[in-house]
């Protein structure tokens, strides 16, 4: 990270349109002496998905005179992130960005942070709107449940039994997707598919692998496992890659290209999806600076743009929800074009 100098530094130019009024500004303060100190708290350590979000933060921070400290619990328990929020409050950081493990358990501590003047953003998951100022979500979660069911149908190629291998039972993002999937199924979506189980690997590789193996043993007619978690999909693919059921039971869901490339190439996995996780980190870093410099107040309908980042333009939805972009499908034809 560049050391502070008493000179002007190049910064990322941003243009905001606030409630229909255009405004241009630099996404940092007037002098290089100002440092924006950000603490990012992912769900847990050692998860390649959240490592990609960290990469997005760091990429943006280089041009924003910002330092980003990453701290997280070893496990993704509902309250395990609270000590890290409390530490950030004591350190008087500029902002806390958090990928919450629980939608409600963190709220009292996050509200204390905001009361102390700290900007609070949720990234890749959300809490109650009163517990943060804005939320950056990777894609439109309201339709992702349907997307996952249709994704499963595509790799199955016909009728049959399938199962979800999710993260933790309290993960707000995955739970929203599973609820959307249930609504779609109950409404008649993909009627030839039968969802026989939803299990939880707690975003731990060993437990996820154990749960995947248990599904294969318990459901002899299983045709597919959909794991909407980067840890879970890799664990399930690893189990199937050495199983006699390889090619008979499909694995799909949400994963990163780098962790899933070998399973695409050895035929264990036909296709899977994700989005660019780093984009959320880039948006969050820029939004923190624009909020701190009072160039934007997050609320429904606010439009903003960030030059050279993702689609470039966003409109905040209800409760200042920001959708980073659409999902991207990966298969043998395109996986080598991506590196994250």
Automatic annotation (TrEMBL):
Main location: other
Every Periplasmic binding protein domain range: 39-291
GO cellular component, one term: outer membrane-bounded periplasmic space
Organism: freshwater metagenome
Protein's cellular compartments: Cell envelope
Name this polypeptide is given: Periplasmic binding protein domain-containing protein
Single GO MF annotation: carbohydrate binding
């Amino acid at each position: 990270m560049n050391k502070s100098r008493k000179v002007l530094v190049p910064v990322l130019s941003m243009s905001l349109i606030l409630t229909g009024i255009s405004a241009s500004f630099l996404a940092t303060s007037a002098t290089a002496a100002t440092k924006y100190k950000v603490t990012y708290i992912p769900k847990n350590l050692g998860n390649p998905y959240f490592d990609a979000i960290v990469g997005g933060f760091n990429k943006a921070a280089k041009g924003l005179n910002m330092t980003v400290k990453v701290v997280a619990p070893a496990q993704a328990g509902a309250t395990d992130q609270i000590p890290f929020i409390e530490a950030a409050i004591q350190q008087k950081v500029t902002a806390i960005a958090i990928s919450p493990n629980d939608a409600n358990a963190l709220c009292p501590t996050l509200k204390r942070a905001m009361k102390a003047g700290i900007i609070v953003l949720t990234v890749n998951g959300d809490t109650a709107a009163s517990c943060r100022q804005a939320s950056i979500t990777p894609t439109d979660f309201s339709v992702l449940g349907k997307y996952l069911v249709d994704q499963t149908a595509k790799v199955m190629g016909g009728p049959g039994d399938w199962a979800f291998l999710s993260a933790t039972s309290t993960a707000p993002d995955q739970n929203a997707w599973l609820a959307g999937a249930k609504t779609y199924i109950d409404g008649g979506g993909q009627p030839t598919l039968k969802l026989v189980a939803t299990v939880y690997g707690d975003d731990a590789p060993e437990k996820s692998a154990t749960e995947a193996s248990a599904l294969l043993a318990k459901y002899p007619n299983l045709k597919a496992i959909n794991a909407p978690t980067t840890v879970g999909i890799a664990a399930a693919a690893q189990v199937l890659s050495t199983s006699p059921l390889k090619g008979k039971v499909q694995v799909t869901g949400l994963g990163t290209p780098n962790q899933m490339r070998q399973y695409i190439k050895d035929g264990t996995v036909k296709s899977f999806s994700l989005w660019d996780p780093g984009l959320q980190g880039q948006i969050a870093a820029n939004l923190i600076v624009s909020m701190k410099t009072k160039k934007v107040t997050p609320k429904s309908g606010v439009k903003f743009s960030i030059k050279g980042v993702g689609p470039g333009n966003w409109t905040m939805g209800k409760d200042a929800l920001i959708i980073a972009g659409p999902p991207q499908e990966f298969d043998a034809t395109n996986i080598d074009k991506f590196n994250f």
